[in-house]
Amino acid sequence: QVQLVESGGGLVQAGGSLRLSCAASGRTFSSYAMAMGWFRQAPGKEREFVVSISWTGGRTSYADSVKGRFIISRDNANNRVYLQMNSLKLEDTAVYYCAARSGPGQRRDSGEYDYWGQGTQVTVSS
């Protein structure tokens, strides 16, 4: 089992930045190949893919809506994944979820992920 805990959400003005963190426990990234992803869900909308990263960090994939503004990274030694969000827009407001999948390859489909965090709220104001 893997437990994921997100942090770093909050209220930010449009154009600002936030850095989300996801701490994993139960399995260490150094011992188990786990790709990671961030998804988000806005009020009244379905959960959507934001970004994913392979186990080694060598491959990433971004949703078009965040490409060029968000950056995913991971620290396998400390079992953490980060999402740096820059130039935030009103439409980025959502609950952001960290997800993990057993296997090295990153995926965009939420159904490919085995473990999910509880989510952290990101609110972008005008």
Description:
By secondary structure, this protein is mostly beta strands. The chain contains no helices and 11 strands. The strands form 2 sheets. Strands 2, 4, 5, 6, 9, 10 and 11 form a 7-stranded mixed sheet that branches. The protein has a 4-stranded antiparallel sheet with strand order 1-3-8-7, with no helix packed on it. Strand 7 and strand 8 form a beta hairpin. It is globular. The termini are far apart. The model has no long low-confidence stretch (mean pLDDT 96).
Tell me the series of helices and strands, N- to C-terminal.
Answer: EEEEEEEEEEE
Fraction in beta strands: over 45%
| Mean pLDDT reading | 96
- Class inferred from helices and paired strands: mainly beta
Query: Which percent range fits the helix content?
Result: under 10%
The value of Rg in angstroms is 13 Å
Relevant terms:
126 residues; mainly beta; four-stranded antiparallel β-sheet; 50% strand
Summary?
Strand 7 (70-75) and strand 8 form a beta hairpin. The protein contains no helices and eleven strands.
List the helices and strands and how they pair.
Blueprint: E1 3-7, E2 10-13, E3 18-25, E4 34-41, E5 48-53, E6 60-62, E7 70-75, E8 80-85, E9 94-102, E10 115-116, E11 120-125
Parallel strand pairs: 2-11
Antiparallel strand pairs: 1-3, 3-8, 4-5, 4-9, 5-6, 7-8, 9-10, 9-11
